[in-house]
Amino acid sequence: MTKHAPTLTAALADAELLYSHAELESTIAHLGREIDAVLDGECAVFLTVMQGALIFAGQLALAIRTDLEFDYVHATRYRGETKGSELHWLREPGVSLEGRTVLLVDDILDEGHTLKAVRDDCLSRGARRVLVATLCTKRHDRLVEGIASDFNGVELPDRYVFGYGMDYHEQGRNLPAIYALK
Ligand SMILES: O=P(O)(O)OC[C@H]1O[C@H](OP(=O)(O)OP(=O)(O)O)[C@H](O)[C@@H]1O
Ligand SMILES: Nc1nc2[nH]cnc2c(=O)[nH]1
């Protein structure tokens, strides 16, 4: 949490519940079945973009029946703020992606800078294909060209959201639902 960050309690008091825990659990179970159908038995590299994707990734992995190899990257461009800036890489992939199918897992596709950069990095490391799985996608016209989610759970209005892995000034990541600031 940054030194003078607004409090989570104040944010929650003035936030709207968008998706409940039960809705998200059933959405993620459905995504798992879709991903199994596309993988068709192939062991993909399940590459989590830390740290917002942590909670979604854990649940999604349990919903996928195909065996997977796990790795993670840590890339951030919001750094506890509610507006993004340049992308900072804190950890690159540890396993070889050469010739592999990568299932890139993130909590949110907003403007797309993060997933585009990580997807392009996977391809430059020789990944044969990169499939993108996101818990949520924001609806607006600021999405960068050339990135989309192959498996997306829910759609969001163009407002700052938190919960289910997503932070409000580094707070609220473990809230079991998605909220939006009004
Ligand atoms: O589509 P974009 O506009 O690039 O935004 C999406 C990214 O923003 C969040 O990460 P953030 O930089 O907040 O770091 P975090 O995962 O540690 O919360 C989220 O986890 C995505 O990776
Ligand atoms: N917590 C959070 N992280 C984001 N990263 C990109 N958009 C958002 C958002 O609305 N909320």
Automatic annotation (TrEMBL):
<dbReference type="GO" id="GO:0004422">
    <property type="term" value="F:hypoxanthine phosphoribosyltransferase activity"/>
</dbReference>
<feature type="domain" description="Phosphoribosyltransferase">
    <location>
        <begin position="18"/>
        <end position="167"/>
    </location>
</feature>
<dbReference type="GO" id="GO:0052657">
    <property type="term" value="F:guanine phosphoribosyltransferase activity"/>
</dbReference>
<dbReference type="GO" id="GO:0032263">
    <property type="term" value="P:GMP salvage"/>
</dbReference>
<protein>
    <submittedName>
        <fullName>Hypoxanthine-guanine phosphoribosyltransferase</fullName>
        <ecNumber>2.4.2.8</ecNumber>
    </submittedName>
</protein>
<dbReference type="InterPro" id="IPR050408">
    <property type="entry name" value="HGPRT"/>
</dbReference>
<keyword id="KW-0808">Transferase</keyword>
<dbReference type="GO" id="GO:0006178">
    <property type="term" value="P:guanine salvage"/>
</dbReference>
<dbReference type="InterPro" id="IPR029057">
    <property type="entry name" value="PRTase-like"/>
</dbReference>
<dbReference type="GO" id="GO:0005829">
    <property type="term" value="C:cytosol"/>
</dbReference>
<dbReference type="GO" id="GO:0032264">
    <property type="term" value="P:IMP salvage"/>
</dbReference>
<dbReference type="GO" id="GO:0000287">
    <property type="term" value="F:magnesium ion binding"/>
</dbReference>
<dbReference type="InterPro" id="IPR000836">
    <property type="entry name" value="PRTase_dom"/>
</dbReference>
<dbReference type="Pfam" id="PF00156">
    <property type="entry name" value="Pribosyltran"/>
</dbReference>
<dbReference type="GO" id="GO:0046100">
    <property type="term" value="P:hypoxanthine metabolic process"/>
</dbReference>
<keyword id="KW-0328">Glycosyltransferase</keyword>
